[in-house]
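User: Please fill in residues for this 142-position structure.
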């Protein structure tokens, strides 16, 4: 059964830092990670984040529309205009809509920002995932 994990950010939890830490965790456990965005512009911001957040730490990643060597990197960054998303073990959903039901994955990570509108939006995502029969859980970050 797929699962959705909601990370509820506190006032001291910068969104960029949490994104980077989740990507590091996926990489350290050797799981494939897809960072899913609304558009190419947002994807390029995440690409820059992974290159520059901690310069001494390299996370092998690529934008989804680029050519790869014999195998793709473990961290891909894609967006809706590319069509159907590829299969991935873990998806960090940065888009403004829930992860598509027909797209295969084992786990979706959702970040819940501090504003009330962000919280309301992600509560709707929770309900959507529950209606699909997914297991949902949350973690409060400081």
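Assistant: Residues filled in for all 142 positions:
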């Amino acid at each position: 059964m797929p699962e959705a994990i909601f990370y509820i950010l506190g006032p001291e939890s910068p969104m960029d830092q949490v994104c980077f830490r989740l990507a590091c965790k996926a990489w350290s456990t050797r799981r494939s990670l897809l960072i899913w965005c609304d558009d190419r512009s947002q994807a390029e911001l995440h690409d820059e984040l992974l290159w520059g957040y901690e310069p001494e730490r390299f996370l092998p990643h690529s934008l989804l529309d680029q050519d790869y060597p014999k195998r793709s990197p473990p961290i891909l960054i894609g967006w809706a205009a590319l069509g159907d998303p590829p299969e991935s073990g873990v998806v960090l959903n940065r888009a403004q809509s829930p992860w598509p039901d027909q797209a295969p994955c084992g786990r979706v990570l959702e970040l819940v920002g501090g504003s009330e509108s962000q919280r309301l939006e992600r509560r709707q995502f929770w309900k959507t995932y529950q209606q699909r029969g997914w297991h949902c859980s949350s973690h409060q970050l400081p």
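For context: The longest strand covers residues 105-112.
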